[in-house]
Design goal:
Blueprint lengths: L9 H11 L3 E2 L1 E6 L5 E6 L2 E6 L2 E8 L10 H9 L1 E6 L5 H6 L10 H4 L4 E2 L8 E2 L4 E13 L2 E13 L4 E2 L8 E2 L1 H4 L2 E3 L6 E3 L12 H9 L1
Antiparallel strand pairs: 1-13, 2-3, 2-6, 4-5, 5-10, 6-9, 7-8, 9-10, 11-12, 13-14
Bound molecules: flavin mononucleotide (FMN).
Length: 217
């Protein structure tokens, strides 16, 4: 089948695009409003964009069917300038999903999911205590594009449980023990996710010198 975007309703474009740009990491974002009320929600239109400086990007659509009202996460980030991205792992996938429910404003998603928080080291917004890793971010900028917002965040601190760190040695590392962290990826809008357990393939980078040697042998 072929789809021309100009003739395709936005909802269908969404369904197709999120199934084709996959798997995606999931930013499980904690943010706070100006009165200190905490919010948690997942966003898979997410990736890191550069590392020097460390910038992550996140696409947050407006609330469906309600004009141009931003989701709480985008509104909080605009107002307080801070947020935390908690890494979604296999053990936390159900709790992450509960946080995507459109609860009334006065209901805490974290409470509904039975989660607790731990203080962050630089930003005021706490991280999810049960998450094994988290990125503390300050808003770099928010761009309004059509009915969406693209939030760029500057990572100001990272938290990773010690067991998931390969320490620096002889000038190399530190690295993340991805094989043990069991991060999850989102696959489509039908509720499919991908586990990263046992899914690792190691493909070392090839230097030009090795490439040349290989061609001659
Ligand atoms: C795995 C997952 C990924 C999601 N990714 C996005 C996304 O990238 N952008 C978006 O606008 N909504 C996304 N959502 C929906 C939001 O999480 C949902 O609208 C949430 O209620 C927003 O909460 P908030 O108003 O508290 O910010 C996703 C939901 C799930 C379950």
């Amino acid at each position: 089948m072929k789809f021309e975007m100009e003739k395709t309703p936005a909802r269908q474009i969404y369904n197709l695009l999120i199934g084709l740009v996959a798997p995606r990491p999931i930013a499980w974002v904690t943010s706070m409003d100006e009165n200190g009320r905490l919010n948690a929600a997942p966003f898979s239109a997410y990736n890191y964009l550069c590392t020097d400086p460390p910038i992550v990007g996140m696409g947050v659509m407006n609330r469906p069917g309600r004009g141009f009202l931003p989701k709480d996460t985008a509104r909080n980030i605009r107002r307080t300038g801070e947020f935390v991205i908690n890494v979604v792992t296999e053990d936390l996938i159900e709790k992450m999903n509960i946080c995507a429910t459109d609860f009334p404003a006065e209901v805490s998603e974290l409470e509904m999911a039975g989660l607790t928080t731990a203080p962050s080291s630089v930003v005021k917004v706490p991280r999810i205590a049960e998450a094994h890793a988290a990125l503390e971010c300050k808003e770099f900028t928010t761009m309004e594009i059509g009915r969406s917002r693209i939030v760029l965040g500057r990572v100001v601190a990272m938290f990773v449980e010690d067991q998931f760190i390969v320490p620096e040695q002889n000038g190399a590392g530190p690295y993340i023990r991805s094989e043990e962290l069991h991060a999850m990826g989102r696959m489509n809008g039908l509720g499919s996710y991908v586990k990263t357990r046992d899914a690792f393939v190691t493909v070392p980078r090839i230097s030009f010198e090795d490439w040349e040697k290989g061609k001659r042998s």
